[in-house]
DNA sequence: TCCGTACCGTACCGTTCGGTACGGTGTCAA
DNA sequence: TTGACACCGTACCGAACGGTACGGTACGGA
């Protein structure tokens, strides 16, 4: 049920969670408009009539392209994820300790910036709202698409640090999850609840917070940390 | 529209959270039924007609007691929070190191158990879904009621540990947030997205994970940690 | 006994929304 | 010119929902 990588076009199958990429430019315009509506007004703001009006398209086209309203929501997540397709490679070369630390901090700041961005928050709220509904795979889709990119970039960074002798750990996944917890804490949930989180307000505040988190991370996983 | 707080007494909390309405037993029955609907079917499952049917009450009573549908949702959060009214005091006496560590682990396990519970997940999903809507204070309400209880218990525990010489830190809030991040990581979000999180499946898995997290916490904030 | 109160169950209304149908327009190819 | 195609805009339908009104019932106090 999870493996349908490249479908030539999204056909008339309306049952499962079908569609992957391969959106036409016109469809991407529509999805962009849908994202705008979502960011501004939440899920209830995405009505078929409202989206058609906002995107200057017909409802008939919506149903032709996306099957039904849920198909539009799924397509929005797939589309947004395809946009964020991160360059995962990163610096493979050996880097001195302070530069490597700056890489880690850069990762942390990027992570916080993404999580606190309005589009990300809106999509996460959408997926969480749909998660209670049975048979909705939006959550899985979001996790698979979004988290994977972050996770792979972080793990590459961590293993590079290990090879370079800056870090020491056995379980890459565990180290990544600890790093995530130290950086994000409960900010993501609080942001989604609409709370005002100071550490995500300005670049300066984010940098300060991330620096402290990376400090803690090095005390747990640094090469000179006592086991 | 917002000020109908005829709070008889019970003004224990000093912060801004306003409402302390005491619900009658009948109203609590209705709210319990509403929670059941919410847990099972998400926010869309709470319709005025459906709730009236499930709770064997009339729609007229719903509107009399709670004002409108949003009032029902707010009352659900207030009611659930009032149920969880935690015994915050905890052991004030000095405790030896290993017992104190067990206290911390107990806190962590309780925290994970609460966050992964179906009622908590459903309420958080509800509040997050409403957060996009302007003028909705459900998120604030949930944070104020739920988070505050956890936070105060944890801070009491941490400061007791500091006085007993088990911990060393300056910023209690910062230490608590680090502890929270080490324990919860991104599990809360993933649970709300409907994902299957192994570390919250069994008591054993939770205990193992929390023990590791407390290990890390002591390496950062233990009295014998290098600064 | 009578009346007020609180409540239940049902019927009802106006609106919104998902989904479908249809006519009209621009384009490209034969 | 003709026809096929993709699309837009609008009108329409049925269902669901929030909210209100009304009749009927139990109870407790004067």
Tell me what you see in this structure.
The structure is a homodimer of 227-residue chains. With 227 residues, chain A is an all-alpha fold. The first copy, chain A, contains 10 helices and no strands. In chain A, α1 crosses α4 (69-83), α1 (25-41) packs across α6 (118-131) and α7 (138-163) packs across α8 (172-184). The longest helix of chain A is centred in the middle third of the chain and has 26 residues, at 138-163. Chain A is elongated and about 65 Å long. Chain A starts with 24 loop residues before the first helix and ends in a 6-residue tail after the last helix. Mean pLDDT of chain A is 86; it is low at 1-20. Chain A binds a DNA duplex (30 and 30 nucleotides) through α2 and α3.
**Which regions of chain A are unreliable across 5 or more consecutive residues at pLDDT < 50?**
1-20
Beta-strand proportion of chain A: under 5%
Q: What kind of assembly state do the chains in view correspond to?
A: homodimer
Shape of chain A: elongated
Radius of gyration of chain A: 20 Å
Topology, element by element:
2 copies of one chain form a homodimer.
Chain A: H1 25-41, H2 48-55, H3 59-66, H4 69-83, H5 97-116, H6 118-131, H7 138-163, H8 172-184, H9 187-192, H10 203-221
The first copy, chain A, binds a DNA duplex (30 and 30 nucleotides) through residues 26, 47-50, 52, 56-61, 63-64, 68-69.
TL;DR of this structure?
Chain A has 227 residues and is mainly alpha-helical. In chain A, 64% of the residues lie in helices and 0% in strands.
Supply database-style keywords.
disordered N terminus, DNA-binding, mainly alpha, homodimer
């Amino acid at each position: 049920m999870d493996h349908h990588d490249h479908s030539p076009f999204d056909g008339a199958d309306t049952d499962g969670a079908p569609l992957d990429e391969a959106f036409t430019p016109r469809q991407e315009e529509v999805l962009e408009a849908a994202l705008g509506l979502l960011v501004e007004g939440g899920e209830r703001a995405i009505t078929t009539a409202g989206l058609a009006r906002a995107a200057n398209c017909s409802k008939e086209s919506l149903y032709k392209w996306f099957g039904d309203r849920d198909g539009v929501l799924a397509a929005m997540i797939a589309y947004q994820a395809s946009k964020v397709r991160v360059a995962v490679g990163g610096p493979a070369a050996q880097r001195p300790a302070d530069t490597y630390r700056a890489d880690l901090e850069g990762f942390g700041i990027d992570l916080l910036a993404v999580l606190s961005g309005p589009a990300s928050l809106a999509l996460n709220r959408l997926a969480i709202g749909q998660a209670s509904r049975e048979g909705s795979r939006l959550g899985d889709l979001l996790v698979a698409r979004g988290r994977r990119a972050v996770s792979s970039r972080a793990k590459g960074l961590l293993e590079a640090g290990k090879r370079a002798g800056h870090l020491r750990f056995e379980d890459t996944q565990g180290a990544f999850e600890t790093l995530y917890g130290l950086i994000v804490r409960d900010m993501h949930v609080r942001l989604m609840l609409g709370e005002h989180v100071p550490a995500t307000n300005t670049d300066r505040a984010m940098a300060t917070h991330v620096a402290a988190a990376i400090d803690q991370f090095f005390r747990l996983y640094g090469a000179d940390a006592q086991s």
